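User: What would this chain look like folded?
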Amino acid sequence: MLAYLRVEAYGFTPVTPLTHQQVLSNRGKTPAASLRDIFGWSLPFAAQHLPGDLLQLLQAGAVVGRVPGDMAGLLVSHVRVASLDADLFVHSAFPTQARDAVFFGPDTVRFFKLIRDHLPARQANESLRIADIGCGSGAGGIMAARLRTGSQVTLTDVNPLALRYARVNAASAGLQVNLALGDALAATTGDFDVIVSNPPYLVDDAARAYRDGGGDLGRALSVKIASQALQRLSPGGRLILYTGVAMVHGVDHFIRDMAPFLGAAGCVYTYEEIDPDVFGEELARPVYQGADRIAAAGLVAVKA
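Assistant: Here's the prediction, encoded as structure tokens.
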């Protein structure tokens, strides 16, 4: 499927769930008219929009199914495909309601830019050990591998479906990666030169793996992953972490919680707000009643 989309010069920029829903509302019940409609906007489509042999493969693999109800007779893709830089990434179809859904959105794009700006330069004949914790679609690790060719890349996640998609996406990019099913780095051994991570950071009542950041207004998982990652960095190793932080009365509790861990690891670090206001609609929920805003932030720490 991804090979076919490449040939067709497919491209789709991922948007937030709120924007996605608004676009679908604006479109009404109009079925798909393009590959972007099928694999980007998750619209129902007629069989003739895809080559017969490809459609048979997708149906056999349960990637495509039939639409029930008043649009019976049409088909729908159970995956989306986003484009970023030179690569295509399979992830879950909209809406991402399942507990094992695999997300790819504007946060992924910002995560990519953080990695691109802070990945250490490769020395001659150097092979870096890179880990992507909570890899989801594998985008972070794949991007790092693209930027530092010849590196050994490990993608970890607690979600088997995420690793399945990550494997497909890495193969599509022509990369060999190691996959590890488990919490953070528990299923891996040894230290790493670079660890990247984009943990979920929202409070999610449905406990969806891609979205639920745990306690403390969604920052608990980011603190856990970052603090554990610091222990597994080799000397001079680098952590590049993208997350979101619920600001309470102007206070950033994530970096406050991380300060003791960064100090104990002897890290030199930079921390910045990448976007001061994301997922503002979440503030309407009672759990966020005391929060001012949710900010996207990037932590880059280098271990002594």
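Residues 100-302 form a domain with the Rossmann fold fold (CATH 3.40.50.150). If you want, I can go into more detail on any region.
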